[in-house]
Amino acid sequence: MPNVDFDIAQAARRIVEGSLGVVAGDRVVIMVDAPRVPLGAALVEAASAVGGRPELVQLDVLGRRPVSRLPQSLRDRLADAQATVLLVSFEDGEWAMRADVIAAVGDLDLRHAHMVGLGRRAFLTGFSVDPQRILDVTRAVRMRLRPDSVFELRSQAGSHVQVRLDPRCRWQERVGLIRPGRWENLPSGELFTCPADVNGTFVADGCMGAHIGARFGLLDGNPVRLEIKAGVVRSIHCADRAVAAAFDAFVHAERGGDRVGMVILGTNVGIHELTGEIICDQNLPGLHLGFGATFPAQTGASWDAATQISLTATGADVDLDGAPLLRNGRYLVL
User: Fold this and answer.
1) Is the residue at 244 inside a domain?
2) The model's pTM
């Protein structure tokens, strides 16, 4: 018998069948880079198994990285698809290309899985439970939220943050069940919105996003300590000065990049350990923060920014309106 990684195959099946809902006859375009060809091949096998018509496209064959905009030849392939996957590394200079893919999702009525920065470890960790289980947990948490709710976060790493919600902004959920014309970051399991106000000390001892997160990986040995006042980063501290300098440069590169644009509640109860990959780790049960972009079309936020970076914290104790919501990263409402 051929060598088969059954864990990878099971994760691929959950993506193709559970999240994308691929059925017989669906054309599926799977965009990967060279290091992720084996993961892409597992998705091809899963799509073929249900009668889909998958095509594997290697992005770095179409053009040298970073690919600044979506190549027309690739957009033409998307026009004939029902489901798509973008499974590539974070590359500085590819924000516009990824935005082009997202725009095509709405234009072409695609079901799209956005998996930027996902490696093998996160591929396995992030898809250890079915999307339906994640949906049940997310809805249980969302039912307890009020438009003007207040969160208080404390952690052993030193976080002590108060987050006040904006009644004008909407919560968005990412549970891994993708409908036509929609996209989700996968792995899934999160609720996010744009807050009204954030104050206190946030210690990111998990990981951070964008290309600098891919560069530095896990922050457990070098946590990033942020002092936040009125929703804006006022100071940045890290024992590794290179980490602090990179984060400082990123959030101050564009106007609004240093503002808290999102508060994120991770709800993927299948994730029990960090991977160092933000696309997976921001779904870890807990409260995480995103700086910059607010995704106003989804949240209803009154402002936006051209950059976005998320940071995760572990082992969180979170109170919601004065009542316990999480203790040591575990939900108490399930």
Assistant:
1) yes
2) 0.82
